[in-house]
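Hi W.,

Here's what went into the run:
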Amino acid sequence: MATKKRALLPKIFSEWFSTKGWKLRPYQRQMMQAFVNHQSSLLIAPTGAGKTLSGFLPSLIDLYNHPRSTKKLHTLYISPLKALTYDIERNLYQPIHDMQLNIDIASRTGDTTAYQRQKQRQKPPHILLTTPESLMLMLSYTDAENIFASLKCVIVDEVHSFANTKRGDFTALALARLQSINPNFLRVGLSATVAYPELIASWLGPSGEPCEVIAAKTRVKPRIKILKSKTRMPFGGYMAKYAIKEVYQAICEAGTSLVFVNTRAQSELIFQALWEINDKGHAIAIYHGSLSKEQRNKTENMMAEGKLKAVVATSALELGIDWGDVDLVIQMGAPKGVSRLLQRIGRSNHRLNEPSQALLVPANRFEALECLSAIQAIKKGDLDGDPPMAGSLDILPQFILNCLCSKPASLDQIYAQTLDAAPYGGLDKPTFEKLWAYTYDGGYALQAYERYQRLEQIEADLFRPANKRVIARHRQNIGTIVEAGRLRVKRLKRAHQGKIIGEVEEHFAQQLVSGDTFFFAGEVLQFVGIRDMVVEAKPGKAKEPKIPSYAGGQMPLSTYLADAVRQLLNHPEDWQRLPAQVREWLGLQKAFSQIPKVNKVLIEQFPYRKSQFVLFYTFEGRKANQTLGMLITKRMEKSGLHPISFSVTDYGLSICSVKPIQQHHIGHLFNPDILGDELEDWMLEAAMLKRSFRRVAVVSGLIEQQYHSQKKSMRQVTFSTDLIYDTLREYDPDHILLKVTRQDAERELLDLKRTADMLIRFDKAFDFVSLSKPSPLAIPIVLDVRSERITGAGMQALLEHANLYQEAENMMEDIRATLSKAY
Amino acid sequence: MIDEKQLVQLVQNNQSIPVQFADQRLLLDAEGVLYWPQCDLLIFSDLHFEKGSFLTQFAHPVPRYDSIDTLKRIQASIARYKPSTVVCLGDSLHDVNAVKRMEDRLINHLNELISSVDEWCWVLGNHDPDIPESLFGLRMNFFTKNNLLLVHEFENLENHKDVNGQIIGHFHPKVSARIAMQKITGKCFLQDHKTIVMPAFGKYTGGLDLKNEAFSTILDKKNTKNFLMYNKKIYLV
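Here's what came out:
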């Protein structure tokens, strides 16, 4: 046994471990063993368990045991975040430097300069750290086979974040392509604790064959408390600013804290509020994805050096970056999911055998219910997670083109490689053929000319991109994530000169007028203007600015939690664990309206803000509520109830209309037969589908996002894709992109099955309450402003009301006269 | 010429709005066309035929159904107003090679429409300085009648005798209105005392927001009316 140990861990490594005061952990040994046995493996470990080192250890040892004279790629590390690759590069440098290993590391992301890329292509490092997008780009090079021929190992970090995302599908395809180039490399996955490790294992394994799961022992359960604030907790809103003093107090008492928030806007607000009361002058920093790379690096370094007392952060920080010793995690606003909460809490206390400390600060009273439900779930050891979904189709044209850019191939060859990626294992050939035809020449039914093709047939069964322009255009548009249009923010020192400090969404920038103020990068900025796609702003003096409303980081609640909240509502004996204010709020709801029951849907109707509202408490999660909203409003439109818009939360659906909904309407509206034949048509007309189409259009290469490194304004893209969508529906209804759009909507927005189940389960089982104003329970929901517009009679009714035209009658007389003269 | 009853119907349904402009009565239609009853004349602007196939040349695989759709809507508007004269206000073709790429059956269809009216005038624009012979109809740089100038781009009226108003295209205007806390955006007609700017009619045509500086150079902003087109209806907002 002892000899085997020594064989696994060379002396120089074991010495390094002891100088660090570390011991080799059992799962680290298992990972090394798997590598030696040439087995792919998936490590499941809580954050802070030395996961990353465990992933790299086998590669470092292999490179030490078998030194490579010539520079050849040995290990490829794929991370979901650019920031993570820098962090890992820094952390890896340490052991390599300490042990004087002759190992080269380099990272390659979208930020890598063309010069460095060229260098890396000529002399690849031993270990290359990269992102899925950069990997795909490398795979499109004609020398891809050469670059990856020597590859021995691929490490995929934070694998759990890839599950069920387009980015994950994209990564799986990239791995399948690598497999076809070099069938012998090993896969190593690193994942946080998840509900279904075996699903991730089959995602990672070649051809859907699950790889070996190695689990680190879960440590003691975390200690989580809900903040019981003495200040009044608001009914609505998502900021949790009311508790700022108590949060500050908690920060003061702990060593180092991480304050997690749910949106970027919230991070700005909370950061500002903390500084306003920071009379002890503690070092508190801010961290979110909109800040510039330099700003984020600075914060990361300060945190690593232990110079910060607290950091206010969004989910950008959830993934792996090592933050040194964190004693307390504060979650402002509801955690939105059990796994997510655990992940965040895992950032605290990297000593494995002590419990993590966490403090939850619900932003409104509904969220207090969510917090308590999440705590109860963690105690029971329940995790939430979704079952796997079929791979997203819009990535495939991109993939096909990517493969052909590297080397000519046949349809069958690429189809076989696609099937090798786990999410695409069930893809049928006719669908693939249609996607191929789309890649070839657009695949339109009415195609008069064959002149404009993206692919060119060079032999009976061999295709390549038609010209250089096609290749260049493809390479510039690689990627799957369609972001809202972004503008960079420049902090001015003098006229038009200053530093770029981050980015905001285009629509936010466009609503600003000169002189407006907003929070950004932790200070109040005054908007000056937009110049050359850059928002120019100078430091402002105002105290109460407009808050950035950038959309980043809004997250849906897991369906598991939504249901847990419904259960909690129906168990008043558990309520005593809620803050007193929340209990009082539930009491008010009971008196004013009703508490939603488990076996019935509560429906409330009330006037609010010049319109009529109806609210369905379904507790079925956002997607099901969205689907229901689309179906019900369509039927309302037909019945002349003039719906204007609807908005959904995880708990319910709220519909705004010109005319009030009465009890007798409900039987007709909330009825399983709305799922009938017209469903398909209704769905295809909805504005939401157009949004899906927009994503699909960009991802599948129909519309480009980037060309000649100049970003096309997102607004322009929006406009043209809506038109294209309508055109396709009318002239080419069987076109593959419409099918792809449908699939995308079902992945991202809709849940037909759950909606159908709900409608059947609650058929005629509802409580209808007509109220004079929003109920206590309704307030958090109607205050949510993100709503879905309905194109139709509702808006027309408003327009007619607002139409300034009065002269029509007089004018008509004149025109009648003209016409009758002519006759 | 449209009959009186149908016209009343259109106005009552908000599908058409009558306006007074430079001593003339005009109808702004929710489909984005302008009808001039006194001259029995119908105006289309910025058709941009074959923009789809133009884009496909640059490896954008967009569907090329825009010309079919634009034609279909032209036909419907002609059927609605039954004009004796049609004026296309420039940028009718997206580029100089547009007709070469146009399918024969579409060219034939367009020529049938041209022949179905007494007079068809192509006012030339910046995208189509020249219109190939294969299309019927008259070519001209501008069109004047009853003191009105019909031209693609804004002109200084002092250069034209006896003209007190102009109807132009080129800008593709659109506008956003805020009503009962809801925002509505759509293509629009703009009108001040001396100028009417027509919306673009072609399928794949985008819009330029009214807030854009370009409009302040040609319109008297304070006295500009916006006629917003939304879901096949038109409103003054």
